[in-house]
Amino acid sequence: MTQLTAPPQVSRPHPAHPAGRPRLARLAHLARPARPARFVAGVVLGLLVTFAVVGPIVWPEAATQDLDRYLQAPTWSKPWGRDDFGRDVTARLAHATRLSLVLSALCVATALLIGGTTGVLAAWAGGWCDTLLRGVAETASALPALLIVLLVSALAAPGALWPLYLGIAVAASIEYFRVVRSRASRVLATDAVEAARLLDLGRWHVVRRHLWPDLRPTLVTLASLGMVTSILAMSTLGFVKVGVQPPRTELGLMLAEALPFFDVAPWMALAPVTVLFALTLSLWGLRSEEVVSR
User: Fold this and answer.
1) FRET label pair with 143: which of 204, 223, 237, 262, CA 20 to 30 Å apart?
2) Any long-range contacts for 59-67 (C-beta under 8 Å, 24+ apart)?
3) Residue in 276, 286, 126, 129 with CA at minimum distance from that of residue 217
4) What pTM value is reported for the model?
5) Higher-confidence position of 265 and 34
């Protein structure tokens, strides 16, 4: 009797080998266009930065008064008209936008440097260093951010810029410290970092291969949202006349000066509101998508 044997199974090649899928996925992700909302936010922010850089060159006379043309309606040469002193609103808007962007960028850079460095230091060192830094941050976070800015501003002459810069940077660095310390503690407790320590690969390896890739999206989001917070804080203080003082121009100060004439010259108020709205939406749209999805 002939014994029947099962035919040998022939392995067929898989159309897409599993080992190649991650690489193909990465290539597809790189080739995919940027998120439309993020692209639009980048374009709007680029236009605002261009306006802040080129505007003061094109319209340099922000403080020049022409009382014969007070509250003049917008024209082709003066797109935002003139204010109650006959000053060009477009020129003042360009100078105010530049001041807001430069000062907020300095505040965010300083806050990221202070908060990021101390956050990583507390997570890495632990012990009394972590307890001390965490205690300082928790004590300072009990105070409202605007109150910290006002307390620092009270130490200087009215209208000085450095108290605004210092107060906003210190207030923002507290939140940055808490976020960075939390994320750095989770990363430093992973098995990969423990293996790197056992292999004696050095601290620079841990920072470059583990800490920085994880903290980078968080820092980008903190920077974009910090710019929004700084600009709105400066505008709030300017609106209540305790921030930037004349003859400097600032968005909140321009809005406060324009409100009494809103019935007869609404363009004076619409100009700073439009820039504040565009800055907020564009910087908000540039936040990292990875942090939001976590």
Assistant:
1) 223
2) 59/88, 59/90, 59/91, 59/94, 60/91, 61/88, 61/91, 62/87, 62/88, 62/91, 62/92, 62/94, 62/95, 62/249, 63/87, 63/247, 64/88
3) 286
4) 0.77
5) 265
